[in-house]
Amino acid sequence: DGLAIVNTSEDGGVRAFLSQRMQVQFEKPVEMLSYTFATMEEECPVAWEFEAGQRRSDGAWSWHRLHVMSAADCADGVMSEPYRVTPGGMYETYRWKFIEITPGWHERRHRNGYRLREIGLECQEQRDMGHGFVEL
User: Fold this and answer.
1) Res 127: pLDDT
2) What's the pLDDT tens digit per position in 60-101?
3) Distances (CA, A) of 67 to 7, 36, 61, 98
4) Considering only CA atoms, which of 118, 101, 95 is closest in space to residue 36?
5) By the 8 A CB rule, do 117 and 38 touch?
6) Per-chain mean pLDDT for the chain
7) Residue 93: Cβ-neighbour burial (10 angstroms; 0-12, 13-18, 19+)
8) Which has the closest alpha carbon to 34: 118, 125, 121, 129?
9) What DSSP string runs through 27-63?
């Protein structure tokens, strides 16, 4: 994964695409209902995909897209509103594929990654049971 800086407009607007992944693994399958972030400073993801994964019998992974974000806000230490996901079934593994970093950040300091202060996950273990909010 790496950084790509792209001029996207006639007025010299620049976007920084930094591809990185973050994965969470549960002990048993859960259905993800929503998630939320609290970001740190300006090293925020502003575009990403959220996926559920399942290991196939041949050992390879099969990923199912549950949510796409293309223009998120960045606010230091403030939890976002919950991002609701498309119902996707029960999985043990979920991941975020971060695609784009806060505009302008790439020009100043670090180009090595995103910083998240806190992540909240709303999930349920079984479809017929209630759900709860879990913070990592």
Assistant:
1) 58
2) 999 999 999 998 887 777 888 899 998 879 999 999 998 887
3) 26, 12, 18, 12
4) 118
5) yes
6) 77
7) middle
8) 121
9) EEEEEEEEEEEEE-TT--EEEEEEEEEEE-TTS-EEE
Element of type H or E holding 106: helix 105-108
103/32 Cα distance (integer angstroms): 29
What is the SS3 assignment for 107-134? HHCCCCCCCEEEEEEEEECCCCCCCEEE
Work out the number of other CB atoms within 10 angstroms of the CB of residue 127.
10
Token digits for 99? 């695609």
Write down the pTM of the prediction.
Answer: 0.76
pLDDT in tens, 19-36: 788 899 999 999 999 999
The CB density around residue 119, as the number of other CB atoms within 10 Å, is 16
Q: What pLDDT shows up at residue 113?
A: 67
Spatial separation of the C-alpha atoms in residues 95 and 86, rounded to whole Å: 14
Q: Per the structure block, which two tokens stand in for 53?
A: 């994964």
Tokens standing for residue 58: 């041949």
